[in-house]
Amino acid sequence: MITAAAFGRLVGIRTQGWFESLSAAGHTPATRMPHPKWGGERVYASASDIGEFRSRFVTLKILEEEFGLHKRTLLVKLKSAKVNPFAPNGEDFGPLYVREDAEEALK
After folding, report:
1. Dist. CA 89–CA 44, nearest whole Å
2. Which of 4, 8, 27, 55 has the least C-beta neighbours within 10 A?
3. Phi, psi at 104, each rounded to 5°
4. CB under 8 Å to 95, separation ≥6 — which residues?
C-alpha cells in the first residue's frame, strides 16, 4: 500500500489531491485508513486499487511505458484523434485519459 501522493508521482501526476478527488467522485477506488502515527484519515492506494485504476485510466507516463513513445508524440496522436482528458461534468483531473479511448487512438 502506498500513499495517494506517492501513487500520483508513480503515474506522473503531481497535482496535490488529484487521486483523492478522483476517488471521492467515485471514479476509482481508494483505501482510507488512519495515519499510523498522527491519526486522522489518510488516502492510500492498495494493489487492487491500483489495478482497478490502471484498467480504466491511463496517464501520459503510463502510455510512454506501454507504447514506447515520447509524451509529445502521444499528445499529438491523442489530440488528432480528438481524445480529451477525462473531465466528467467539467471536473479537472489533470492529464488523465480513459484507457479504452487512448488505446484506440494509438493503435
Report:
1. 25
2. 55
3. -60, -40
4. 12, 13, 59, 60, 85
Exposure pattern of 42-61 as b/e (b: 16+ CB <10 Å)?
bbbbeeebbeebeeebbbbb
Do you know the residue count of the chain? 107
Question: Which amino acid is present at 9?
Answer: R
Which three-class secondary structure string do you get for the chain? CEEHHHHHHHHCCCCCCHHHHHHHCCCCCCEEEECCCCCCEEEEECHHHHHHHHHHEEEHHHHHHHHCCCHHHHHHHHHHCCCCCCCHHHCCCCCEEEHHHHHHHHC
Query: Over the stretch 37-69, which tens digit does the pLDDT of each residue have?
Result: 777 888 999 999 999 999 999 999 999 999 999
Amino acid identity, position 3: T
pTM score above 0.85: yes
List the grid coordinates of 66: 506501454
